[in-house]
């Protein structure tokens, strides 16, 4: 089980955009340069975040990305699901209904106990990521970083 | 992010072995047949569970697998980590220290806020899986399944 590198990239970019001057956008080259990320690969993740309604993409010569909502209204889970998709990591194949031990369908009206507990664990993971917003994330930056990144992103914004 | 199919297989097999007569082993063919699983592919997961100390492998003509500990002492997380390995799904690449926005190393003594929250979510997931044992799992079977599986596994055991 492995999360895409795009999760780290997307969260850092969202946190950086949270510090951009209101209404301004940052080009993907500006975001990529800030963290030394490959532009074309980052672009795919930024597009996924725009499709998921986390970012707003502005086209044209002064175009770029900004957060689609205030940073306090975007959870870490929103970004993770934008990049990874909402599919749970465990997908029950109902093997209890197969083989010499096959359980008859009438005994399988309730979800399999294994499916149920994996779903519960997935919910605990998502709840944890839903409890933190992009605004919270920026508040947890070490002293001075918020101000420094705000300055840098203002220069990159248009 | 996706868990290996082996997680479902491993948990079902561990739950089945929890019902085997004490001290008896079940051959991999017996486990595979119960759930109509491909024997050679299942064998890899059973071996991984044995390496992780979840199963005990007995070699020879009357060999096979049994649980290495009482089912109340094996957690679902033990099985999941045996199959998936203990590596967390998120691995921080410290991109905060790269690019035009690079944070100096002296400001990076504490883990990145993003790394910290992803680690916290992973802990919530593992805590949830650690809270359930293989014995609990069998207790959650629908009525009659425990007895039926115990009968079937006794026939397959040697």
TrEMBL record, chains A, B:
Gene3D superfamilies from the UniProt entry: Winged helix-like DNA-binding domain superfamily/Winged helix DNA-binding domain
GO function term, MF aspect, one: DNA-binding transcription factor activity
Record-level GO cellular component terms: cytosol
Organism domain of life: Bacteria
Protein name: Rrf2 family transcriptional regulator
